[in-house]
Each structure stands twice: as structure tokens, then as C-alpha cells.
């Protein structure tokens, strides 16, 4: 039997998941960390548990929350595990009622009872069970309850909540309309969700007479407003549930009346302060980058590549020879010089990404990330971005691929696409070797200055592009921003580790296949040419392509075939640009002769800003499902890169 | 009277959402910001751009521009 795990964000849903399955799953204080479908077998049983993103309601308000509604309506599953935060019973039970209305067997798991106890309150489980009409278990009593046969535990509610007369009349009208609709889903649930304004339901049902449904719903809403019952249909339904919940809480929460803290703590005062908060964020970022790249990342990466080059590669080639492959055969060369180079590229890169994910997971699980969003929102708002865009922007400094995936938590789809469009301008760590090479060759005295300048430039361009897109393409709707600020919690090491590994695996699989594909294409471009296979570097298809493109890059000072072809390489795999440039230009002397200081600056700028790598483009297409947007992003990036490089080149020619 | 008229530490009861997109209203309802709820302004942040709120023991942050669309009745 398959069970799905549903609950509000930050209720310890994923902790329960890890507890039950032993591993695999993610946890975070950030709404919607678990976007991918994570599943695991419940220990000691044959039941599968599927972890879903945290939601407040079945009406989706962002891409990752939409996943839950989609799963609920389309997948086959045996029951629902609904995690309910004992502290915020009133809000959590709103979702529970929606779930009970689906008619799917359900088990309620109560979490965070220790925090409730701190407030001096206790929850009477049997009263809650009686009220809800389904089994309720407590997470703090251990998870042995699931050893029982699940069919005894997961039960259907035998009652349904009665709403106000107007709402009930509306449900009746929709039920009549729904009779003609072929669906296995509970009709009453569908009717209520439609009245609540759940667009996900309409999308799934794809009704031919949708207009009739919508007109009926509008009429009922008007009636509710006329009667002054509520100010919207959603409000009327919410109030119906609220009344039931308030009565239920009176029965099961002892003692009544929560003592509410109406002050925020001193730490929160500081971390959300516009100046101190920003400063602590900057210090935190510096610390994370120091750990990620200098302290741990680089030594690990170097170690990785030494093991790869010195140990794995020779053995692999020996193995291939034993298999009967000749060292000059194409298959051997493609495997060693294409696939393995690409694979090595990802592998060497992985430690840094993992450490970055680890640090971010701690920031999310501790609740600090929400404070960063608060500090950054007023700043990012000026450029038309959501405060939540700060997370993708940080991840983007490591790699653009997971950064684009992390935009799923942004509610508004236009805001999300806008964030995606500007993300490739954020200088990922694969671009750093290009800077290192160029800076050592041309600007060795100004190393730090140029490196910092490039990062500042990337940020400035990203922000101003967002502003540009806001006033031009994405100006239709007013943004919607609301953030729940979770309490500070001590992150659990095990959960953080599991989450890091999951995100890392996700990155490895997604980015990995594109990077390897890019390396294979690159091998063919470099090694074959009009004259056959294994041609000299200036007779390869890459050189041909470079010569064709070169005239176009003359205005920005990059009009040689060598430089143009290294830009082609940059599209396939950014991390290979520096090493390839050395090969194409035949060593440092050669590279020195290809550039003037001004054109070197232009090359740095262009490499920073132009088309992102194949993996980023691929993931962009996967996330948007739109060729137009993906091509738009490529064109936009290219245009911005060309213009900025043009300016820098000409200014550089005057000054340098 | 809208939510932005409350100063730090003051409380009010939400009486309506004015000129707000229906989808945003639904989102507020689902997160626990609803008509009839008692709201406390804990702090005004980001040079007056953001409001730090408390409703039913849950903490929220919303923008001032959106808070202007939330009508309230002052308590106490």
C-alpha cells in the first residue's frame, strides 16, 4: 500500500518521514523544500511512504504546492498520513478537514507536542479522535503505531461537515452538474474545492461546460456577499470550518486560551534589522563561501581530481584495452576524452555543491533563511523581485542548475520566470577558472580587484535586468508576497545530511547528464573536421564553427577563431573553457597573443554574462516547459552580454 | 482604517480585504490571515516597507503595500 504524507510547512513532516523510512527525504523550515517526489519503504512493513511539499491548503499557490493537488487527484494511493502541528491546531485542522472531505482513508499524526507543553497546554487525543472521526496518533510516542496493519489504522471519516445554507445549496447545484462528469474522485469534495476557487481542480477535470460551473459559482458568491454572510465564498467556507474547529479545540485543548507572546526576541530584532540584519547576512555568506570554496571545497576537489586522473583513469583505460578496444578507436577516445572528462567535471564540482547545500539546509532548518528573506525583500522589491529570490541567487553562485530548480517556491509564476531569466547572470563557480586564467595572464597586479569587480558586475546586471524585465515584459500583475516566519529551531544533523545528499543526487542526475552530453559533443567538435577524424585543432569542426562566428565578435574585440570557438565550448561546458583555450591557443604564450588587455576584459565580461551552459538551458526548458521562454532567456542573456562587453571593450581601449 | 495605521505593539481585528486579487486573498486565508482574526503588529521592518505580524501565535511578514489593502478595527 502506498501512503502520502501531507501537512503544513514546518510541522516536522519530513522528520516523521525520515523516522519511518530510515532515510531518504528532506527537511526544512522553508515552505516547499521537498519538491521532488521522495518515497521510501516504511521500516518493518511493505508500505511505501511518499513525502510531499508542505501546503497550507489544497488550493495550490505555487508550483511546488501544485504537486500535492496533482498527486491527490491523479495518482493511486491507499491513504493519507496527515501531520498536524499541535501548536497551530486551528490552522492545521483547516487542511485536515479538506483532506477528510476527499473520502480517502486517513491517519492524523500529531507533532510538536513538546512546544505545546512549553506553553502549558495539553492535547486530549481521544477528544480529537472523536471530533474528527478518524484515528489520531502522537509522534512523540514513537512510530511503532505503523507496525499495526494499516487498514486498521487508516480510516475514512464517516461524517461530513455541514456548511451554511447558501454554501450547501451551492454544493447541491454543483453535485447535479458533476453527475455527468466521469471521475472517480469524491463529488462533494470536488464541489467544495471548486467553490473555494481551486484552479487545480478545473485544470484536472478539463470540463467541456466549465463556463456553466463558473457561472453557478459566481451566483453563489454574489448571494453570500448580498446576505452579508462573508465577503467571499472562500471566506464563507473557511468560517464554516473555523466554527467546527473552534468548538473542537474547546473540547480537546486544555487549558484553554493561549498565552501569546506579543514581542519578538532580541536575536530576531537584530537579524531582521535593515542594517544589522544585512551585515549578519553578509558575514554569513562570506563564511559559507569561505567554507565551501577555500576551506573544504577546493582541497576536496583537488583531491578528487587527483584520484580521478592518477588512479581511476589509468585503470579505466587499461580495462577498456582488456575489453579489446584499441586506444586509437573512436569509442575509446569518446569514453576517455569525452564521457570521463565530463563525468570528472561533475565529480570534481560535487564537493563544493554538497557543502553549499549543507550550509543552506542548516540556514533553512534553523529558520534563519526566513529572516534573510525579510532583510532582502525591501531591497529586491525595488528591482521587481520577490524576497524569496535570494535563495536561488545564493545557490546560483555555486551552480545555476539547482538555482533554477529552487525557484519553485516562488508563488507568482511571472515572478518565478523573471527570477529564472536573470539567474544565469549570477557567476557560478564553473566560470571561476576562466577568470583565474585571464586575470593571471593579463591583470596579475589587480587580481582581487578584477575578481570582485566581476562578481559585483554580475549582481548589478542581474538586478537591473530584473528591473528591465519588470517594466517591460512582466508588468501585468501586482506581486503577492506573504511569508510565514517560523520559530528558530535547532537543526537535526541527520535530517540536514539526508537533505544534502538528496539535493546532491538530484543535482548530479540533472546537471550530470547535460554536462556529459556537452563533453561528448565537444569531443566530436574538437577531434573531427571536414578532413576526417583526429584532425589538428585548427582543422576541426570547432575551428570551422569558430571561423564562421568570429566576424560577429569583432566589435567586442573577440574576432579570432580561437576565441570564438572557446565561446562555443563555454556553451557546452563552462568549466572546460580555460583548459580548452590553453590547448587551442597552444599554451599561455599563444593565449597572450590572442588578447589585448581591453579584449581580455571584454572576454571576461562576455564569458560571465552570455548564454548559460547546456545544463542550465536544459533545466530551464524542463522547468518552464516553454521553448519561447527558454529561447527568450538565451537571447536576452546574449544581448545583454554583447552590449555590456561592447561598452567595456571600447572604454577599455581608451583607458588601458 | 487599514493595517498600516497600527504602530508597533498595537492590535486590531481584520474586517476586510480591499482591492486585493482573489488568489492572494485565498492564500492569506489558507495561511491563517483571515477576516475576523486578531492581529498584532510586532515590528515595522525594512525602513517601513514590511510589517512583522502575529496572528493566532503564528508570525508573518507582509509588505506595506499589501497591508494597506487590509482593513482593520483597532482593539484597545
Biggest sheet: strand arrangement of chain A:
2-3-1-4-5-7
Classification by helices and strands of chain B: alpha+beta
Roughly how many Å apart are the termini of chain B? 15 Å
Structural class of chain A: alpha/beta
Q: From the coordinates shown, what is the CATH architecture of chain B?
A: Roll
The low-confidence parts of chain B are none
Largest interface chains and counts: A-B, 48 and 39 residues
Oligomer classification? heterodimer
- By CATH reckoning, the class of chain B would read Mainly Beta
Mean pLDDT of chain B: 92
Could you describe the 3D structure shown?
The complex is a heterodimer of chains A (656) and B (76). Chain A has helices at 13-21, 63-74, 89-100, 113-118, 125-132, 150-153, 165-178, 187-196, 199-205, 210-226, 233-252, 266-271, 276-295, 297-322, 330-366, 368-381, 390-398, 400-405, 413-422, 432-442, 447-471, 493-527, 541-553, 561-572, 577-584, 587-594, 597-609, 614-624, 627-655, and strands at 2-7, 38-41, 48-51, 79-85, 106-111, 122-123, 136-138, 253-254, 482-485, 528-529, 532-533. Among the domains of chain A are: 2-153, 3-Layer(aba) Sandwich (Rossmann fold), CATH 3.40.50; 166-232. The longest helix of chain A is centred in the middle third of the chain and has 37 residues, at 330-366. Chain A is elongated and about 80 Å long. In chain A, a hairpin with a 2-residue loop joins β10 and β11 (532-533). In chain A, the strands form three sheets. Chain A has a six-stranded mixed β-sheet, sandwiched between helices. A two-stranded antiparallel ribbon of chain A has the order 6-8. Chain A is built from 29 helices and eleven strands. Chain A starts with a strand and ends with a helix. The model of chain A is unreliable at 25-35 (pLDDT under 50). Chain A is an alpha/beta fold and 656 residues long. The relative contact order of chain B is 0.35. In chain B, strands 4-3-2-1-5 form a five-stranded antiparallel β-sheet. The model of chain B has no long low-confidence stretch (mean pLDDT 92). Chain B is α+β, with helices and mostly antiparallel strands. Chain B has one domain (3-75): SH3 type barrels. Chain B has helices at residues 22-31, 64-67; strands spanning 11-17, 38-45, 50-55, 58-63, 70-75. Chain A binds chain B through residues 56-57, 59, 61, 87-88, 90-91, 94, 196-197, 230-232, 234-235, 238-239, 242, 258, 260-264, 269, 272-274, 370, 373-375, 377-379, 381, 411, 477-478, 480-487, and chain B through 9, 11, 16-17, 21-36, 40, 42-43, 45-47, 49-50, 52, 54, 56-63, 66.
Amino acid at each position: 500500500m502506498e501512503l502520502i504524507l501531507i501537512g503544513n510547512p514546518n510541522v516536522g513532516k519530513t522528520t516523521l518521514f525520515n523516522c519511518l523510512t530510515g532515510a531518504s527525504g528532506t527537511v526544512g523550515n522553508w515552505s516547499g523544500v521537498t519538491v521532488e517526489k521522495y518515497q521510501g519503504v516504511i521500516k518493518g512493513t511493505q508500505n511505501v511512504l511518499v513525502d510531499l511539499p508542505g501546503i497550507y491548503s489544497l488550493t495550490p499557490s505555487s508550483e511546488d504546492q501544485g504537486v500535492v493537488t496533482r498527486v491527490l487527484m491523479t495518482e493511486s494511493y491507499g491513504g493519507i498520513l496527515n501531520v498536524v502541528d499541535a501548536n497551530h491546531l486551528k490552522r492545521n485542522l483547516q487542511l485536515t478537514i479538506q483532506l477528510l472531505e476527499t473520502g480517502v482513508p486517513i491517519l492524523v499524526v500529531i507533532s510538536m507536542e513538546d512546544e505545546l507543553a512549553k506553553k502549558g497546554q495539553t492535547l486530549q487525543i481521544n477528544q480529537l479522535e472523536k471530533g474528527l472521526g478518524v484515528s489520531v496518533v502522537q509522534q512523540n510516542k514513537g512510530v511503532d503505531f505503523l507496525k499495526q496493519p494499516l487498514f486498521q489504522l487508516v480510516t475514512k471519516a464517516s461524517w461530513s461537515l455541514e456548511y451554511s445554507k447558501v454554501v450547501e445549496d451551492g454544493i447541491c447545484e454543483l453535485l447535479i452538474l458533476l453527475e455527468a462528469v466521469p471521475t472517480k474522485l469524491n463529488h462533494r469534495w470536488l464541489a467544495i474545492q471548486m467553490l473555494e476557487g481551486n484552479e487545480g481542480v478545473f485544470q484536472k477535470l478539463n470540463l467541456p461546460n466549465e463556463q456553466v460551473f463558473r457561472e453557478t459559482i459566481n451566483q453563489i458568491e454574489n448571494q453570500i456577499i448580498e446576505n452579508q454572510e462573508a465577503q467571499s465564498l472562500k471566506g464563507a467556507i473557511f468560517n464554516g470550518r473555523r466554527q467546527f474547529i473552534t468548538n473542537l479545540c474547546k473540547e480537546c485543548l486544555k487549558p484553554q486560551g493561549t498565552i501569546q507572546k506579543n514581542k519578538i526576541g532580541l536575536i530576531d530584532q537584530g537579524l531582521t534589522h535593515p542594517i544589522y540584519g544585512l551585515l549578519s547576512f553578509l558575514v554569513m555568506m562570506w563564511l559559507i563561501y569561505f567554507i565551501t570554496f577555500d576551506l573544504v571545497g577546493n582541497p576536496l576537489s583537488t583531491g578528487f581530481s587527483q584520484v580521478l586522473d592518477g588512479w581511476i583513469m589509468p585503470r579505466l583505460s587499461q580495462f577498456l584495452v582488456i575489453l579489446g578496444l584499441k586506444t586509437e578507436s573512436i569509442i575509446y577516445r569518446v569514453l576517455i576524452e569525452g564521457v570521463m572528462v565530463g563525468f570528472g567535471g561533475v565529480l570534481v564540482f560535487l564537493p563544493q555543491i554538497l557543502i553549499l547545500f549543507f550550509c543552506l539546509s542548516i540556514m533553512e532548518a534553523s529558520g534563519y533563511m526566513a529572516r534573510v528573506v525579510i532583510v532582502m525583500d525591501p531591497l529586491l522589491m525595488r528591482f521587481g523581485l520577490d524576497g524569496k529570490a535570494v535563495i536561488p541567487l545564493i545557490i546560483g553562485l555555486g551552480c545555476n542548475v539547482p538555482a533554477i530548480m529552487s525557484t519553485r517556491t516562488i508563488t507568482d509564476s511571472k515572478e518565478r520566470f523573471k527570477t529564472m531569466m536573470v539567474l544565469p547572470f549570477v557567476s557560478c563557480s564553473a566560470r571561476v577558472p576562466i577568470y583565474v586564467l585571464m586575470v593571471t595572464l593579463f591583470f596579475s597586479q589587480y587580481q582581487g580587484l578584477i575578481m570582485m569587480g566581476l562578481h559585483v558586475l554580475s549582481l548589478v546586471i542581474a538586478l537591473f535586468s530584473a528591473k528591465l524585465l519588470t517594466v517591460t515584459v512582466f508588468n501585468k500583475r501586482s506581486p503577492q508576497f506573504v511569508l510565514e516566519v517560523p520559530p528558530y529551531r535547532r537543526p537535526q544533523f541527520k535530517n540536514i545530511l539526508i537533505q544534502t545528499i538528496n539535493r546532491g543526487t538530484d543535482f548530479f542526475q540533472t546537471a550530470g547528464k547535460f554536462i556529459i552530453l556537452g563533453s561528448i559533443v565537444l569531443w566530436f567538435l574538437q577531434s573531427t573536421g571536414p578532413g576526417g577524424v583526429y584532425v589538428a585543432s585548427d582543422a576541426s569542426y570547432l575551428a570551422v564553427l569558430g571561423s564562421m562566428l568570429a566576424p560577429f565578435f569583432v566589435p567586442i574585440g573577440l574576432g579570432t577563431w580561437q576565441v570564438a570557438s572557446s565561446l562555443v565550448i563555454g556553451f557546452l561546458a563552462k568549466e572546460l573553457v580555460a583548459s580548452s583555450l590553453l590547448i587551442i591557443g597552444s599554451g599561455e604564450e599563444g593565449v597572450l597573443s590572442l588578447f589585448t588587455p581591453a579584449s581580455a576584459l571584454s572576454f571576461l565580461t562576455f564569458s560571465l554574462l552570455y548564454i548559460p551552459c547546456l545544463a542550465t538551458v536544459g533545466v530551464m526548458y524542463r522547468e518552464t516547459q516553454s521553448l519561447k521562454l527558454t529561447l527568450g532567456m538565451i537571447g536576452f542573456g546574449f544581448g545583454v552580454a554583447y552590449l555590456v562587453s561592447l561598452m567595456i571593450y571600447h572604454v577599455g581601449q581608451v583607458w588601458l | 482604517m487599514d493595517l498600516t495605521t497600527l504602530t508597533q505593539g498595537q492590535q486590531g481585528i481584520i474586517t476586510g480585504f480591499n482591492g486585493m486579487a482573489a488568489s492572494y486573498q485565498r492564500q492569506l486565508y489558507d495561511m491563517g490571515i483571515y477576516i475576523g482574526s486578531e492581529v498584532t503588529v510586532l515590528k515595522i521592518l525594512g525602513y517601513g516597507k514590511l510589517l512583522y505580524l502575529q496572528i493566532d501565535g503564528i508570525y508573518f511578514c507582509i509588505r506595506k503595500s499589501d497591508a494597506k489593502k487590509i482593513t482593520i478595527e483597532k482593539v484597545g
